């Protein structure tokens, strides 16, 4: 439902008529095309851009994370190769320009890290808006309600659902934290078999440090670090100290999300109107519509799968006998939003919880083993099948983006890493000078025939 016909300016892009598309993009209307400007009528200009973008979307659009039929995918790949090689040939950066570009990127990243408290909830609101804007439009169209009222009701519903889940898991979480010191002492006894290997690792680490210090010229041996023993009090203090920041960011997120849902289309319409040429207007509409559709499909799919993963882990915790199965089901649901690192953290967490709940290590391995099977079934089979040829990104860059944004913004940054990488690819695919970057970000995709695997150059280049 979210994947089909999602638009960017109030009406469905795919719902524009073919007559409007042909009348706007035909040669006979070239004069009127050039006269579309920011000073013209808002509704007429936006409708013309949407119609033209729809009429020539399949012919002129570059490949993105969403793909159509195999034939269209091959043709799009061929067109992208031609644009990519042309962009590489005409782009020549001097050393000064490269240095300025590097300094600009570093300055942007530094600003994003310093201003994370205000920038992060805004980015999160923009990504959430991409998933919710289609339901808001459908409800507004079906029930003839003002978009402001629909956006407010949707945000209140989200807040109520999150509040109900938090209240449901807060009591078992508080009880688990209260009994954690005694459980840790019991777990240390169960893991006494690992005391010998741990001491061996510690002594090996001490010897390596001594060798490195001798090689560096420092002959003073360093004593091994004493084990750090801390109770639950520091954890509680850290949680309490971060409550104010979290509440402020949550308030910023909901306020920004409300205005994006209520007035986001008008903001995009104004942005399209200031584009100087008709082609620029059409490119802006295509980029916005692809971003909206791709991210909404991705977030809707993984949310559906994460709910199923949470339910499956709730059932397996209840059957295995782990206390508070609802708490660990919600934890599995939340962790599954973070690729690779999230499921791995969930396996370790389930092993630790099983270690506290069962008398032997072998029994404690049952829950994480089932968790791993569920993750392999979902992450390696079902979700790739649902997103096959729709959301293809380079796995190396996905992992690198995950690590970078986790370091930059923490858990929320790790969740946003894949959507932001997809947005970057879509923008690069539609900007000629950035086409090579979009090609690198893209996944393996479909292999072209052998004749098409050669670089495709403009016609005049063959005469060189």
From TrEMBL:
It is found in: Membrane. Residues 1-43 are annotated as: Disordered. The chain crosses the membrane at residues 93-112, 118-136, 148-171, 246-262, 297-321, 327-353, 365-387, 407-427. It is a multi-pass membrane protein. Its main location: membrane. Keywords: Membrane, Transmembrane, Transmembrane helix. InterPro entries: AI-2E-like (IPR002549). Belongs to the autoinducer-2 exporter (AI-2E) (TC 2.A.86) family. This is AI-2E family transporter.
């Amino acid at each position: 439902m979210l994947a089909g016909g999602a638009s960017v300016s109030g009406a469905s892009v795919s719902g524009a008529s073919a007559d409007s598309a042909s009348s706007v993009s035909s040669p006979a209307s070239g004069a009127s095309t050039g006269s579309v400007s920011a000073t013209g009528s808002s509704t007429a200009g936006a409708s013309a851009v949407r119609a033209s973008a729809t009429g020539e979307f399949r012919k002129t659009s570059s490949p993105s994370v969403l793909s159509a039929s195999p034939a269209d995918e091959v043709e799009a790949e061929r067109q992208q190769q031609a644009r990519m090689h042309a962009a590489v040939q005409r782009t020549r950066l001097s050393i000064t320009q490269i240095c300025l570009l590097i300094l600009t990127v570093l300055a942007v990243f530094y600003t994003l890290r310093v201003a994370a408290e205000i920038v992060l909830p805004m980015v999160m609101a923009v990504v959430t808006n991409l998933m919710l804007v289609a339901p808001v439009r459908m409800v507004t169209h079906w029930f003839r309600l003002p978009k402001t009222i629909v956006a407010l009701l949707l945000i209140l519903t989200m807040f109520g659902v999150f509040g109900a889940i938090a209240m449901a898991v807060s009591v078992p979480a508080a009880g688990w934290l209260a009994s954690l010191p005694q459980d840790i002492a019991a777990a240390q006894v169960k893991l006494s078999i690992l005391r010998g290997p741990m001491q061996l690792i510690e002594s090996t680490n001490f010897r390596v440090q001594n060798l490195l210090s001798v090689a560096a010229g420092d002959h003073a041996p360093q004593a091994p670090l004493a084990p750090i023993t801390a109770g639950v009090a520091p954890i509680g203090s850290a949680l309490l100290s971060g409550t104010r920041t979290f509440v402020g960011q949550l308030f910023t997120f909901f306020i920004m999300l409300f205005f994006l849902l209520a007035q986001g289309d008008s903001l995009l319409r104004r942005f399209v109107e200031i584009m100087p040429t008709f082609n620029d207007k059409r490119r802006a509409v295509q980029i916005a519509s692809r971003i909206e559709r791709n991210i909404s499909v991705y977030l809707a799919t993984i949310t559906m799968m994460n709910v199923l993963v949470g339910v499956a882990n709730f059932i397996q915790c209840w059957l295995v006998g782990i206390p508070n199965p609802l708490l660990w089901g919600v934890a599995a649901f939340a962790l599954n939003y973070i690729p690779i690192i999230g499921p791995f953290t969930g396996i370790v967490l389930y092993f630790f919880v099983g270690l506290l709940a069962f008398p032997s290590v072998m029994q404690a391995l049952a829950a994480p083993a089932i968790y791993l099977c569920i993750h392999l079934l979902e992450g390696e089979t079902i979700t790739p099948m649902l997103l096959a040829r729709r959301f293809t990104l380079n796995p190396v860059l996905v992992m690198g983006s995950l690590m970078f944004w986790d370091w930059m913004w923490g858990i929320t940054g790790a969740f946003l890493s894949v959507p932001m990488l997809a947005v970057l690819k879509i923008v690069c695919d539609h900007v000629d000078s950035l086409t090579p970057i979009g090609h690198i970000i893209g996944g393996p995709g479909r292999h072209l025939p052998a004749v098409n695997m050669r670089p495709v150059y403009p016609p005049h280049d063959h005469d060189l």
